[in-house]
Amino acid sequence: MGVEQKLGNLGIVTTSLEKAVNWSRTRAMWPLLSGLACCAIEMMSAQASHYDMSRFGMELMRASPRQSDLLIVAGRVTRKMAPVLRRLYDQLPDPKWAVAMGDCCSCGGVFNNYAILQGVDEIIPIDVYIAGCPPRPEGLIHGILTLYEKVENEKLTKWK
Amino acid sequence: MNEKLQNAIQVLQQKYGCEAHVHRGEHTLFMSADNLFEASQVLRDDFGFNLFASLTATDYWPEEEPRMHLSYQFFSIEHNMHLRLRVPLAGDNLNVPSIEKIYPNANWYEREVYDMFGVNFDDHSDLRRILMPYEWEGHPLRKDYPLGYEEPQFTFNFDAIDLRKPKATE
């Protein structure tokens, strides 16, 4: 935000700056090491050697939310876990993104009852929803690449 | 082993006048709520039932009165005996004495039954919800609690439900 106020309408310079910054954000986005339920197994296998997510910049998963960029909500979120997850999301520093992996965090999945949050977007604003129960590791990687496309199209004025 | 169990059942039947059922090798005694505390003390001290295995409840609304049956499972480690005490409770008087003083692990079991069924345990040291969030209203595993949580969003009612759904803001 500060850059464009100071430099004014320098079209070419700001477009290249957007491209550069968005490129660098997608090339090294580190997720938070937080899996909740069965989708976490698929997330682990996507991170492992066969379907490597390090090819796409997710070199490792940080255990601390203060050091990560992306929150992959993997698995069903119970009503008791919801405030904890919201606190984790709040602890991620900007710029941050959130991906809802699987059916349970997108819409409640098969669990339409008192204990499970009907979609984690009741508490966290989500950028990409990934369908599947659980989504295959390739499905998760496709969702991550969709997120990258979204980040690459972000405009300078909308940066957080 | 079987004689000790039969002995225990006979003593309890004489003292408290309870019915006994046997089903596939499992022995059950139907007890009233007033006698429960004494009976579990007798079981622990005189007959060696030192493990309180579990406590659950079943809701028979609206088919049967009394509505709530509590099932207490006792196990004796040395003698390898299982015994169940069932306590029927009427819907307007869901109060049972807590057996936490006799078996301390009943603490969490009774909290769970309180949370899910709304049965009140007298003299419990810390009766609050254990599975649901503390301010939740309603007792989920009762038969008059609604089964699903929200109406499924199909194409024809998608927008109507979307307006009602809680959505996060940043």
In short:
In chain A, 40% of the residues lie in helices and 8% in strands. Chain A has helices at residues 2-7, 11-27, 38-47, 82-91, 103-107, 137-152; strands at residues 70-74, 97-101, 128-130.
Features:
heterodimer, A: 160 residues, mainly alpha, three-stranded parallel sheet, 3 strands, 40% helix, B: 170 residues, Beta Polymerase, domain 2, five-stranded mixed sheet, two-stranded parallel ribbon, 4 helices, 26% helix, 25% strand
List the helices and strands and how they pair.
The complex is a heterodimer of chains A (160) and B (170).
Chain A: H1 2-7, H2 11-27, H3 38-47, E1 70-74, H4 82-91, E2 97-101, H5 103-107, E3 128-130, H6 137-152
Parallel strand pairs in A: 1-2, 2-3
Helix pairs in contact in A: 3-6
Chain B: H1 2-16, E1 19-23, E2 26-30, H2 36-46, E3 51-59, E4 68-76, E5 81-89, E6 95-97, H3 106-117, E7 120-122, H4 158-164
Order of helices and strands of chain A: HHHEHEHEH
CATH architecture of chain A: 3-Layer(aba) Sandwich
Tally the structural domains of chain A. Answer: 1
Helix content of chain B: 25-40%
Low-confidence blocks of residues of chain B: none
Average predicted confidence as pLDDT of chain A: 88
What does the radius of gyration of chain A come to? Answer: 17 Å
**CATH homologous group name of chain B:** NADH:ubiquinone oxidoreductase Nqo5 subunit
Please tally the β strands of chain B and state the result.
7
Q: What structural class should be given to the helix and strand makeup of chain B?
A: alpha/beta
| Biggest β-sheet: strands ordered side by side in the sheet of chain B | 1-2-5-4-3
CATH architecture of chain B: 2-Layer Sandwich
This entry's quaternary arrangement is heterodimer
Q: N-to-C terminal Cα separation of chain B, in Å?
A: 65 Å
**Number of separate structural domains of chain B:** 1
The 3D shape of chain A can be described as globular
By CATH reckoning, the class of chain B would read Alpha Beta
Number of strand segments of chain A: 3
Number of helices of chain B: 4
The two chains with the largest interface, and their residue counts, are: A-B, 16 and 19 residues
Strand content of chain A: 5-15%
